[in-house]
């Protein structure tokens, strides 16, 4: 196995498990034309269905964060998407088990130390 990379899963067969068009962390399999997706869930897809990203996201799945404009709200990174037009990461957070509909950019969030 090689190093862990970040990319966008473009395999439409993964729609039903929530990976289609999501940012994923993966490792390439040296023995085959497959990659092993590690985050957000474990799955296996063809290398041709992953668009590699040059930079890793600022926040990762499960990381505890709060919105800069609402420091009293504590959340967890639930989903990471890629904004194709702006070429940047978008984060969806979960607060008290509920998914927020607002999309956050890198500068909209801060890590909980």
Can you tag this structure with a few keywords?
2 domains; 5-stranded antiparallel beta sheet; 0% helix; mainly beta; elongated; 113 residues
Question: What can you see in these coordinates?
Answer:
With 113 residues, this protein is an all-beta fold. The chain folds into 2 domains: 48 residues; 48 residues. It has no helices and 10 strands. It is elongated. The mean pLDDT is 93.
Ordered list of secondary-structure elements with their pairings:
Blueprint: E1 5-9, E2 23-28, E3 34-39, E4 43-46, E5 50-52, E6 64-67, E7 75-83, E8 88-95, E9 98-99, E10 109-111
* Helical content class: under 10%
What strand order characterises the main sheet?
Answer: 4-3-2-1-5
Q: Please state the CA-atom Rg, rounded to the nearest Å.
A: 15 Å
- Report the mean per-residue pLDDT as an integer: 93
**Which stretches are low in confidence, meaning pLDDT under 50 for 5 or more residues running?**
none
Query: What is the SS-derived class?
Result: mainly beta
* 3D shape: elongated
Order of helices and strands: EEEEEEEEEE
Query: Based on DSSP secondary structure assignment, what is the total number of beta strands?
Result: 10
- Estimate what percentage of residues fall within beta strands: 35-45%
The total count of helices amounts to: 0
Number of domains: 2
The largest β sheet comes out as: 5 strands, antiparallel
């Amino acid at each position: 196995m090689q190093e862990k990379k970040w990319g966008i899963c473009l395999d439409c067969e993964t729609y039903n498990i929530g990976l289609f068009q999501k940012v994923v962390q993966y490792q390439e399999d040296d023995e085959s034309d497959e990659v092993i997706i590690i985050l957000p869930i474990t799955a296996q897809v063809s290398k041709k269905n992953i668009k590699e990203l040059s930079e890793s996201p600022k926040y990762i799945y499960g990381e505890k964060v709060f919105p800069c404009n609402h420091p009293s709200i504590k959340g967890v990174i639930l989903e990471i998407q890629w904004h194709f037009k702006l070429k940047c990461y978008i984060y969806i957070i979960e607060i008290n088990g509920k998914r927020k509909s607002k999309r956050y950019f890198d500068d909209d969030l801060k890590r909980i130390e």
